[in-house]
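Quick check before the chapter quiz. The format below is the same one you will see on the exam, so make sure you can read both the input and the output lines.
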Amino acid sequence: MKCKKDFDLAAILVFLLLSFVFSTPSEAALCVFRNPDRDVYEMFPQATGYRSVIKKLDRKAQKQIEKFLGQRLDYDEGGEHTFYLVLKDEDVIGVIRPHAERGKHGIVEMVWAFTLDGRIKDFKIQRSRERGTALVRSEEFRRQFRAKTLKSAFTEKKSRKINTALFTPPKKAEKVSSLIAYSAKKNLFLYKLFFPEYNKQIVDASKSKGKKDSEKENIEKDKKK
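Here is the expected output.
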């Protein structure tokens, strides 16, 4: 009877161990948007709604982003990625991307907000047990990322370390600051990859405006003749 109890106890321990081993890594690939009904409207006050969109990162695209980052993606970062399209009535006015990076003390969950011209609007940290988390949640740190684009040097070349020539990380928060900078770089690339049509809208609008301005200038010149 004692042998059976020992066997049952060992089986339970093995099951729990396997459950931990196989479930923990996937947390980085799948980041839950915990408070969309609050965060969407805080980041985009003019929004009237939102909807989720799933995009798939295939092997070809994975090679592209790894070349850009100078880093290999974690093995569970391929496959499906969830984004949220922010709506004002029927128009898309922005994109939100929940994302997670592995820190020293667990998963760091972030939410990125992007404008349609490929710029960072803001970011939030949903969960983190990393040292210095309260410091990187501050307005002083977050505003350094606003309006930055894919052309910005978020990290040192071929590194995950934050570029201190562009950003000033809080003291005692360098590691979590680097996670944020690397996440910004990675997700701006994914945004450009998955949603080229929204960036194109801004380009087309800009060209159209430039054309109208040029036509207006010509009309004014004709009047002066």
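If your answer matched, good. The longest strand covers residues 91-103.
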